[in-house]
Amino acid sequence: TYENLPTKFPAHLLDPNARETEDFLSWVDDFAINHMAVNHHLLNSFARGAYGTHHVRVLLRFLKCYQLFSKKFAFYVTECRNLTSDSEARHLLAENLDEENGVYDEQFFEQVFEDFGIERKSIELVRHGELFNRVIQGLDTYFAKEDPIGYEAENILNSQNPNLLKDIAEPLLNLTKMFEDSIDKDDDAPDDDNEKKFIQCLSTLYWGSELIVSRMYPMIYQALGNYTTLSLHDLAFFPLHIDCDDEHADAMRQILKNLGDKSENRELMIYSAHNFLQGRVAFYDKICASVSENILFAPPVTHTKPGLFQGLLENNTQPLITDFSSAETNGNN
């Protein structure tokens, strides 16, 4: 029995004799889509440009922290696939990996050009991790040009505390550490043990990422598209995931549906989903806290050029938005 289950979860959904697997999956889908991990005020603030002159600085900090998790996503899918011998599951996850590595069919190239104007040469055979890094590199260059004072202030913070980004990303990194510990397949272990590992990994990937990012990423894409001058080439990562991750999610959902005939499997699914969604919320909260601590209310910075930060500090006496980082999270937790 797992202790960390949503308080509003209907326990009867765990009983395969009482409710169909589809009923269970639909409840967890709704739970994830409506969770604070998808609807956090930080994401809405990005979409609205609510951080004003600090918008790019906060957004880049968020993306750099997030990259510490997302850069290994293809590895997680690969290792998850290695945990199962089921041919259908392995085939569906292999298709996911093809796209993670920039391999698409002709219809996909035509669709993303029609929907977003993204050219084939921008994405073909480019791994998604490289596409995400392209966003960060483009935004970093833009930040340095548009806000050199803020850019230097951020660099000073990172030089004073080299673990700043890791500390902020700690909630996600703790979960990925648990995830990585669970993906080591033991060839000598009973099949049931490896199946449990597979279910835990797949549930985390599905409800913690694939199902929700197509709903989260439009807010990040809006934050980048409306408030910077980055090109479609620079930003390609986000339209691709808005467009194609529903298909990936459908494939993972089908695999989970085939495994939902046991109550212990269902319990592991909802536990894994809830655990990772809570980790996302904790990460967003830490971003907000860091913004209040050293951007909106930045303390004096010792610098070799006197007066460089005077204007910045004068503008930071009041927050640009209300800080909700210490407020109680009222999602489906």
Q: Any descriptors?
A:
333 residues, mainly alpha, globular, disordered C terminus
Describe this protein's structure.
With 333 residues, the protein is an all-alpha fold. Helices cover 70% and strands 0% of the residues. The protein has helices at residues 21-33, 36-39, 41-48, 55-70, 73-82, 87-100, 106-116, 120-123, 128-146, 148-160, 164-168, 170-182, 191-227, 232-235, 237-258, 263-296, 310-314. α1 runs parallel beside α16 and α13 runs parallel beside α16. The longest helix has 37 residues, at 191-227. It starts with 20 loop residues before the first helix and ends in a 19-residue tail after the last helix. Residues 300-333 have low confidence and may be disordered.
Strand fraction: under 5%
SSE-based structural type: mainly alpha
Give the fraction of residues assigned to helices.
55-70%
What sort of overall outline do the alpha carbons produce when their principal axes are compared? globular
Low-confidence stretches: 300-333
Order of helices and strands: HHHHHHHHHHHHHHHHH
Radius of gyration: 21 Å
Distance N to C terminus: 18 Å
User: What average pLDDT do the residues reach?
Assistant: 87
Q: Number of DSSP strands?
A: 0
Number of helices: 17
Major β-sheet annotation: none
